[in-house]
Specification:
Blueprint lengths: L7 H32 L3 E2 L1 H7 L10 H4 L15 E2 H10 L6
Antiparallel strand pairs: 1-2
């Protein structure tokens, strides 16, 4: 296949034709994803916490953590509720690294 050589001005024109619409499209997708992430419900039940934070389908996994010192459980009657942000912060602060 033959190689096409373009000058600097042709490259700029081609970049504008291709890159600008692509960047506009990607920007819209990124903005939409950020908006969805920001509007996610922060209060989770055990099943949601297991799935969305731990990536597991068994809500029993939460039982392994919820009685550990400092694990964030929201006060209230009935089934336990958890703040997504507080749990993520707790995980970040309580990770143990083995060398």
């Amino acid at each position: 296949m033959d190689e096409i050589k373009l000058g600097a001005s042709s490259m700029r024109v081609l970049a504008e034709i291709i890159a600008k619409p692509l960047l506009k499209s990607v920007k819209g997708i990124v903005q939409q994803e950020l908006k969805q992430q920001q509007t996610k419900v922060d209060v989770l039940n055990k099943r949601e916490l297991a799935k969305e934070v731990f990536g597991l389908s068994d809500p029993g996994v939460v039982d392994r953590y919820m009685y550990l010192p400092g694990f964030p459980i929201m006060p209230g009657e009935g089934k336990p509720r958890f703040s997504r942000r507080a749990v993520l912060k707790w995980i970040s602060e309580n990770q143990i690294y083995h060398s």
